[in-house]
Recover the amino acids of this structure.
């Protein structure tokens, strides 16, 4: 199944490794700091009274401005960057700083940016005055990031609703398998804006309390913001001492059902999961952990339970991190994948904050409290507006005998 | 040559003109606005899909282009729904309808965000609309580029087909912002008919100069 390619005299068998990561969120500015809060089941979702976001109190997960400015100042830039770009630069720099073998200036390193709304706040007349108009375009945001990081290649931008982050990781894995590049820096970011808050409020999709994924009393999403960075490489010599974690495969699909609601049967997500397990050459019984999408809307969580149960994964421990980070849109797939990788490294299953009683049509095994358990692999799933679904599987290199 | 990837059909919409397989098929150059032109094309082609009127301008453009592409090449009769991929890009994302949503929230005294508008504030919604209309369920990704990156889209399309991720790919560009628009969508299949799937031929089809008649 695995394609063999020869690059620079070195044979690679389609192995793609996680070579570095970072999360900037309400819960911290390093992956470790974020994961420590998850272990203790401490949420970053709080009540805000901020008229610039919403006229009423809003439950949300926000990146601390003071700390963001402090961390950004350390990068020593005098140029003007938007808040979103600052999150991206701080996160990507931190992810690269933990692995000195990654050369961001190499022509064989590519940046992939995942975002749904980019610098959308610049559409506001006052905000827009601070930057030239082209900063509204996602390709310009990505170009600014690549330029600052010192990468010579034109970055790729994926904007595919709430599966953007998972899609960007799948894309990175596929491009690494093609062999043109040896390293991908995948950066997913979205910021909390009045634009996004008012839109989800108009849908009446926002919960008045912290989101309760998969729960019988769930009442909608909590919105969030942040940035996740995952560095991937096909070159084993570029790895540091951390345990080898592989991206085994992934797939996307479309429900072809409705633009603003998921399929009622979960068939689209089911297809993405089946294709992912097949590419990863892993059976449903072998899956140790599912990091679900779990937005805590009625339709999403119902649909997800059906897709998971119909792929014979109903007994696999599963959580949603949306009640910790809120829904971070284009960042979610990457932030949650990074946390999944840390669950594997620390052999710890994170409890789903605020989950009490299962309230979905198919039986799924939601993790209630954080516990120590061997986690050899992680299936990350996502679904989004436009009927899109995606799944990706991470696995420890040591977990199975590999020829 | 058999078993190589081929460009099998194309639809290009720009400057008040619709081209199907490089031939001018409809023109309404006198339209007052880009939106009027799309409505004229919808009527001319009797697309008969009332959801069209609910869509934002970007999706309307995608709908006209994809309908004409599917009429000339009925791929959804040839392939299983999960074997068709949609790989589409643009430059302005959904900024056209984003601006409309922004106007609805800019003024506290006149605050009226609408779910019917907000749902379109993601560029991949146009992929969803094409998928719903044609029951396409395969791989789907929306990319944002400053200009169409034919090298990347070409190699990613071939990679999907060479690795059994798709048997047919609908690829291209759909962009609509500030009354300017441009769309080109084309099908790539593994067949012995059609023109070779190369970046040179992609550029030819964009310029309506690819010869689809030869086969």
């Amino acid at each position: 199944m695995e394609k063999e390619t020869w690059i620079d005299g070195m044979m690679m068998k389609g192995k793609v490794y996680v070579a570095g990561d970072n999360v900037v969120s309400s819960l911290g500015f390093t992956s470790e700091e974020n994961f420590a809060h998850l272990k203790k089941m401490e949420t970053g979702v709080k009540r805000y009274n901020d008229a610039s976001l919403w006229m009423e109190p809003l439950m949300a997960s926000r990146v601390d401005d003071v700390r963001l400015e402090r961390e950004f100042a350390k990068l020593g830039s005098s140029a003007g960057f938007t808040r979103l770009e600052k999150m991206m630069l701080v996160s990507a720099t931190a992810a690269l700083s933990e692995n000195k073998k990654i050369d961001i200036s190499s022509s064989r390193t590519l940046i992939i940016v995942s975002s749904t709304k980019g610098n959308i706040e610049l559409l506001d007349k006052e905000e827009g005055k601070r930057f030239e108009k082209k900063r509204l375009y996602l390709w310009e945001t990505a170009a600014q990031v690549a330029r600052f990081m010192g990468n010579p290649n034109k970055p790729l931008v994926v904007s595919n609703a709430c599966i953007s982050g998972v899609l960007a990781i799948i894309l990175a894995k596929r491009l690494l398998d093609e062999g043109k590049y040896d390293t991908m820096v995948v950066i997913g970011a979205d910021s909390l804006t009045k634009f996004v808050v008012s839109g989800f409020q108009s849908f009446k999709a926002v919960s008045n309390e912290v989101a309760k994924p998969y729960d019988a009393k769930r009442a909608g999403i909590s919105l969030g913001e942040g940035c996740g960075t995952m560095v991937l490489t096909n070159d084993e010599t570029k790895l540091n001492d951390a345990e080898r974690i592989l991206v085994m495969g992934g797939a996307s699909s479309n429900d072809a059902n409705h633009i603003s609601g998921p399929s009622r049967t979960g068939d689209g997500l089911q297809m993405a999961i089946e294709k992912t397990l097949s590419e990863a050459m892993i059976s449903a019984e072998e899956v140790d952990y599912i990091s679900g999408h779990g937005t805590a809307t009625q339709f999403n969580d119902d649909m997800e339970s059906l897709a998971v149960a119909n792929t014979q994964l109903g007994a696999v421990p599963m959580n949603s991190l949306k009640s910790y980070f809120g829904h971070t849109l284009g960042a979610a797939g990457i932030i949650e994948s990074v946390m999944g990788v840390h669950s594997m490294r620390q052999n710890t299953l994170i409890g789903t904050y605020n989950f009490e009683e299962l309230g979905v049509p198919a039986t799924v095994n939601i993790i209630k409290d954080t516990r120590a358990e061997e986690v050899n692999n992680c299936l990350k799933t996502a679904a989004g507006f436009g009927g899109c679904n995606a799944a990706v599987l991470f696995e420890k290199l040591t977990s199975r005998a590999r020829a | 040559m058999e078993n190589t990837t081929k460009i099998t059909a194309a639809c290009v919409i720009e400057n008040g003109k619709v081209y199907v397989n490089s031939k001018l098929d409809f023109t309404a150059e006198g339209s007052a606005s880009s939106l009027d032109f799309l409505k004229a094309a919808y009527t001319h082609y009797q697309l008969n899909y009332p959801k069209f009127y609910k869509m934002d301008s970007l999706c309307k453009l995608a709908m006209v282009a994809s309908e004409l592409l599917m009429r000339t090449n009925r791929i959804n009769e040839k392939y299983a729904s999960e074997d068709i991929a949609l790989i589409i890009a643009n430059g302005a994302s959904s900024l056209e309808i984003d601006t409309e949503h922004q106007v609805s929230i800019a003024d506290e005294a006149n605050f009226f965000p609408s779910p019917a508008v907000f749902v379109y504030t993601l560029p991949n919604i146009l992929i969803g609309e094409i998928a719903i209309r044609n029951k396409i369920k395969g791989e789907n990704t929306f990319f944002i580029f400053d200009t169409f990156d034919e090298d990347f889209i070409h190699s990613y399309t071939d990679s999907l087909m060479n690795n059994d991720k798709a048997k047919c790919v609908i690829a291209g560009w759909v962009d609509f912002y500030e009354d300017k628009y441009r769309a080109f969508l084309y099908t790539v299949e593994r067949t012995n008919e059609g023109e070779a799937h190369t970046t040179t031929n992609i550029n030819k089809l964009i310029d309506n100069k690819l010869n689809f008649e030869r086969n």
About this structure: Confidence is low (pLDDT under 50) at residues 1-13 of chain A.
